[in-house]
Amino acid sequence: MIEASHLCRDFGDFRAVDDVSFSIQTGEIVGLLGPNGAGKTTTMRMVTGFLTPSSGTVCVDGLDITADGCAAKNKIGYMPESAPLYGDMITEDYLAYVARMYGKDPEERLPRFARLCGIGAVMDKNISDLSRGYRQRVGLAHALMNDPEILILDEPTGGLDPNQIGDVRALIKEIGKTRTVILSTHILSEVEMLCDRVIIIAGGKIKADSPTEELRSRFGHNVTLRLSAAGCQPDGLCALLAPMDGVLSVVPETPAENSPDAGAAATVVIRVAEGREVRPEIFRRLAAKNWPVFELSVMRDSLEDIFRTLTTGGNGDA
């Protein structure tokens, strides 16, 4: 459906996107994830045809976005980070204008997308009077008005409160059942909840491209142990375990006040070298000290850990 090949985009001497290639199939919900300034928005603008690549190509359903711009763009619905709405218009009038601009019948389109986007209650209201959450919904209705096969959303939940975020996420999930969706965000929980696949970009380059469920197994190689033991202090645990072969660090942790272990056990977090098994030796050392173990649990890299590693150069390119 979308084929981006060796995309580059320069702004003067600055290269914002550097040799980015990816392929997105029909029906996928793909998260384009990266820190601020990573090149996400520039990449999306090239995919939608808003920006011309300095080099490289984008094809949408076999159509070159530059050479066959009108036909390719007709397959895409795009909502920028701040939906570009006419604030002085009534919601219904604005969406009817958008429908006519696409050559569509407003009488047929408006009821369908008002229902899908949950904006029926504000169709008679001035856009400038709407909350940001409703303005995002109107922006989605605008992006969908041509009934596109591909929906591209740039930071769709930015600036929303938690209730509005939940509503917009549910809406995107519903829309994604029948369309290909590319979602740009830096909110990790959003990616886990919505996306089938994640592309992580930093410094204008792709650092990872993987199904969401496989991301941890492919890139989350670090293992951390959480240990709670009685009869000792955190400093004593650190001194006992830090010299062990395969242990990278031991850091004290303060249990929450309402934790059953608060005041009864010392708790530490142990970073372990990749591929090392240290738990039997930990048990032996604590048994020799007669320190009962309350807990020894494995905490593998979270998506946040993987994101931080990949976007700060810890693991290099994928």
Q: Could you characterize what this model shows?
A:
It is a single chain. The chain is an alpha/beta fold and 318 residues long. 33% of the residues lie in helices and 29% in strands. The protein contains 11 helices and 14 strands. It has helices at residues 40-48, 69-73, 91-101, 106-117, 132-144, 162-175, 188-194, 215-219, 234-241, 279-289, 303-311; strands spanning 2-11, 14-24, 29-33, 55-60, 63-64, 76-79, 150-154, 180-185, 197-202, 205-211, 223-229, 247-253, 266-272, 293-300. The protein has a 6-stranded mixed sheet, sandwiched between helices. Strand 9 (197-202) and strand 10 (205-211) form a beta hairpin. The radius of gyration is 25 Å and the shape is elongated. It starts with a strand and ends in a 7-residue tail after the last helix.
Uncertain segments: 314-318
Tell me the quaternary state.
single chain
> Could you tell me the number of beta strands?
14
| Coarse structural class | alpha/beta
* Tally of DSSP helical segments: 11
**How would you sum up the global shape?**
elongated
Largest beta sheet: what is the strand line-up? 6-7-8-3-9-10
Tell me the Rg in angstroms.
25 Å
Q: Main beta sheet: strand number and arrangement? A: 6 strands, mixed
**Distance between the terminal alpha carbons, to the nearest Å?**
23 Å
For the residues shown, what is the average pLDDT? 87
Keywords: ATP-binding, Nucleotide-binding, Transport
Protein name: ATP-binding cassette domain-containing protein
Pfam family, one: ABC_tran
GO molecular function: ATP binding; ATP hydrolysis activity
